[in-house]
Structure formats: structure tokens, C-alpha cells
Amino acid sequence: MKQKMQYIQTLKQTLKLNQKLLKSLDFLTDNIDDINKVVQQVLETNPFLELKSPKNYDTQQFIESISNKRSLKDDLYLQLSACTRPYNEDLMDYLIESLDDSGFLSYPIDQYITDLNIDREILDAHLDILHSFEPNGVGAADAIDSIIIQLKNNNKTKSYTLFRDYQDVILTQNYSLIKQKTGLKKEEIDHLFYEIRSCNPFPCNMYSSSQDDYISPDILIEVEDSNIMITPINQPELIVNNLLYEKVKNDENMKAYFNDAHFLIENLTKRNQTILFVANALVHIQSGYFLYDDELYPCTLSQLASETGFHESTISRTLNNKYYSYNGEVYPLKQLLVSQTASGDSSDSIKKAIVELVDSEDKEHPLSDNQILKKLEELELHCSRRVIVKYRQQLNIPSSTKRKAIK
Questions:
Q1: Helices then strands, each counted (H, E), the chain
Q2: Domain count, the chain
Q3: SS3 assignment, position 118
Q4: Domain limits at 267?
Q5: Which portions of this protein are annotated as coiled-coil regions (predicted)?
Q6: C-alpha span between 19 and 255 (Å, rounded)
Q7: Per residue in 277-286, pLDDT tens?
Q8: Do strands 323-326 and 219-224 pair parallel, antiparallel, or not at all (unpaired)?
């Protein structure tokens, strides 16, 4: 009886912790990394909550990304000690110690050959051993090479060969050009992209001391045949084990766990729907930017609120700490919000024009702010001199006196 009472007491303490975590979580404002950390804590203590993995979500990567970190080199040496393939210990030590914080090789291949006084065949054999270790993709030359290694290790033979031989073409994401160069059909290109995206270009980030600087996007924006596609990514898909609940539903503590599980799922669903809805409206407004590389269109919180029906504060919280992935880069969603000048011109258009004017100016006689203002007016872009100074400072462009070339 005593042991039973002690068990119930521990269970209540854990439940209290879960409720505190969930109620303190601002689902709309917090970024996806913070959300995932709390999700993992609840997963570890809530018996009714389970993680289901959709195509665009890596369960193992999720679990590892929020777990306690160990040294990458410690793990590699541990795997090396269990390696049954023949290798030179000094050579492997050199390779492991030469890895940078991202788990990439710090030097060019030729430098390894020279420093170690070995031929390419011996180096490749030892690199092959390193590439067989976890995390998959360690010991690559860079992020692209890491994806190639992962495709090879995962036996994605066709994707491995194509990406290795046509990476420059494939990275353009230009379907017509890829079809022309590889002879692939659209369905085959889609599958190729899927397998490439299933790889992590920075597989060793979980070990990096600077991991907190890594940003996880909430959505992926892609352009295909003049269509803009928005896909949620890095979103944990949770399910509730109703069969288990049927067996214990008379227990009040278990009911609280069950309610917590539904509370978390409902709020995550509402969060993701809101982000997707706001992002869809924002991308629709900025469609020219994604389709034709036009300047960003003037768009404010007020305009976006009017477009979506949400309050401005909701829009602001939705865009806070949210990012999108586009053409292999990650950008803040807020970046798609663009103010406009008193005359109604887009600040993005004016900034781009300022950059072009400064880039093409006579370096011995650089343009003053007043001259830039006049040239902008010739381009039918209107703003004040004070705005020119403000934008120039935001663009880190020095004043004309500091830009003047010294003979």
C-alpha cells in the first residue's frame, strides 16, 4: 500500500509539471524549436500521447535534437573502437580531429594527402570508414557533399548518382533544365527532390556548441510551373492512444493526462493552421517576388489583418520568430512585410534602387544623398532625403565622403 501511495504522489507531481508547461506555452508566438522541446517533455510523461511521423518530419532527428548532447568526436571515437574494418589509427585520429563544428572536413583533400604523406586511395579508404559512422553525412566536405554521402549510405542509388553528377543543375530547381540535362520525367524529378529533402545537410548540428543559432523553418515555399506551393515542415504530428484510455478512463489522474494530450494537439493544430493561413495570404500578396523576382510589394500588419480577418496583434504574434525555407535558404516571414513611403512607393523598391545607384556610381565622385534622391525621382520613386539616409544606414552603405575612392 505504501509503495502504491508513493507511486501516485510521483505521478501527480509529473502531471502538475505538464500542466504548468502547457499553460505557460504561447503556442502562437514561440518558435518551432521551443514547441518541440516542450512536446518532447510531454511525450516522455504522458502515456496517451504518441508521435506519428509524416513525410516531412524526421522523428529520430526530432528526438535527438532536443536530447542531451554529447561530443561529436567522443561518439566517433566510440564507433571507431567498434569498427571491424582495417584502418590506420593515427590517420583516423587526424581525420576526426580535423572536423569543424559542423562535422565537415576543415581542409581540402589535397592538403590531407600532403600533410599525411599518403596517396588518394588510402585517404579515400579511411574517409569511407568515417562516412560509415553516425550521424549519417559526417566527414563531408560541405553540406552538399553530406547529402551525397547520405543518399549513398541510404542506398538511394539513382538519386545519389544523379545528385553527384548533376548537383549544379538540380540545385537550380529548374524542372525544364533538369529534364533537359538528366532525361528524367517530372514524377522522377519530384521523387529525386523528395529523397534529397529527406537528408539533413547539417547532420552534426546536434553536437555544435552554436546549435542555438540554427533556425528551423515552419514552412517550405516552392515554385513549380508558375505555381507557388506552401508546405508545413518540422511540425510534430501527434496522436492520442484512445484504446489505452478506454482501459483506465475511470482513473482521475489518467483523465487529466488524457485531457492534457488533447489540449496540446488542439493548440498545435490551431497554431499550425493560423501560421499557414497568414503565410498563404502574405505569399499571395508577394507572389510577384516568388514568381518573377520582382520587388516586394508594400504590405503592412494592418493590410494583412484586413486580408485574413485576424487582429493585428494576432498577425504580429503569428509572424514572430517564424521562418520559411525558399531555394535552400531560410528567411524570416516578417521579411515579406514591407512598409511604404508617404508617396506609396515600396521601401523594398527604393532600397534596391539605392544599392544599384551606389554600385554603379563613379567611385571618385560618389553620389550624395541629394543626388540619390534626384535620381530616384527620375525613376519615379519618391521619398524624402531623411528616408534616403535611413535606408542607406539600414543597408550599411557609408556616406558619400566615406565611399570616395582615394587615389
A1: 20, 6
A2: 3
A3: coil
A4: 1-65+216-296+305-334
A5: none
A6: 13
A7: 999 999 999 8
A8: parallel
